[in-house]
Amino acid sequence: MVHFIFFLILNFGALAIGQIFTGPGVSSEWYRTLNQAPWTPPGWVFGAAWASLMVCFAIYMAHAWKLDTSKRTLVFLFGVQWILNVLWNPVFFHYHMILAALAIILLLTGIIFTIILRYSEQLRLKSLWALPYLLWLLVATSLNGFIYFNN
């Protein structure tokens, strides 16, 4: 339970730091005037999705922490994921650097895929806790990509 709470705090900390730079985010004039993908969900979905995903990922990371004997690799991968997660918001919403944000989210998606793949043998069905994060990142990457190629 301690590991779950620890990763929950780290995950929500990343969201909070990112939110500082998001400002009005999806309700901003800049974002609303962009040509967006037809599959873009309503604005409220983003907050609900990220909150749910971070709970699931905290559960996954707590399991991974307990089973992994080489904490160095796990800490490195989680740290890179954390930094990329924090960086995306200011790059996209504050600086309006859509291509750089796309590169960040592609790297983030690759890191989450790597984490799942790296620990799938040890965690087996517990790996399903990280799958929603990966799936959401695929959707988010497609949204970012659509915005880049259509604006």
Please give a structural write-up.
- This protein is mostly helical.
- The chain has a single domain, classed as TspO/MBR protein (Ferritin).
- The protein contains 6 helices and no strands.
- The model has no long low-confidence stretch (mean pLDDT 92).
Brief summary:
The protein is mostly helical. The protein has helices at 2-22, 29-32, 43-67, 71-94, 98-123, 131-149.
List the helices and strands and how they pair.
Layout: H1 2-22, H2 29-32, H3 43-67, H4 71-94, H5 98-123, H6 131-149
Helix pairs in contact: 1-3, 1-4, 4-5, 5-6
Proportion in β-strands = under 5%
- Percent of residues in helices: over 70%
**How many domain units?**
1
| Assigned CATH architecture | Up-down Bundle
**CATH 4th-level superfamily:** TspO/MBR protein
Structural class: mainly alpha
Largest sheet: none
CATH class designation: Mainly Alpha
Mean pLDDT: 92
Radius of gyration: 16 Å
Regarding quaternary structure, what we see is: single chain
N-to-C order of helices and strands? HHHHHH
**Low-pLDDT sequence parts:** none
Count of individual helical segments: 6
Predict the CATH topology. Answer: Ferritin
| Cα-to-Cα separation, first versus last residue | 45 Å
Q: Count all strands and give the number.
A: 0
Shape: elongated
